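User: Second chain of the day. Same drill as before.
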Amino acid sequence: MELTGQVTISCKKTGYYAEIDFKSKPMFGGEYNTLSGKICKWDKVLYFISGKWDGKMMIEATETSNSSVLFQPTKETRSRRLVKQKPVYDQMESRESTKLWKKVSDAILKDDQELATDEKAVLEGDQRASAKKRQETGEDFTPRFFEKNHEGIWTYKYFNTTPWNPEVESEEYEVEGVIQSRKK
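Assistant: Same format as last time:
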């Protein structure tokens, strides 16, 4: 699978926008994951962008033609994938997503769209009823695993920002909603 197509990100307030073209690999030769684009303010092109979205990406100022690295992932910034283990439903708490959505997931796997839609409607109805009850009683909903950061954005409380160390860690796993690393 490959990301292709054009994307525009814009801010009506400031007039800044970026147009990025994710290119597909040609049939013969070429590379995967390449892109090109430009950053503009109103009708003026300020920068050109080129490179690979999963590798080295360059930015060039149109006025000076000065070029520099915009983004370049390193081994230190990449984490090993989370190892998905088969869920044990009787060990899960009642409100865990995997357990809550089991009937919907099972229906989807059986290609029963009607049952999946019905089960989803039941879950959504329960969520609306819980929200209404909290509103009536004045109770605030406090997420267990998320908190607002200094910008007011909800973030995962236990997010680990340290680089993945394959010399010491063998995999990531989850215990009671908290992602942990298994040591070798």
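The two ends are 33 Å apart (CA to CA).

User: Great, on to the next one.
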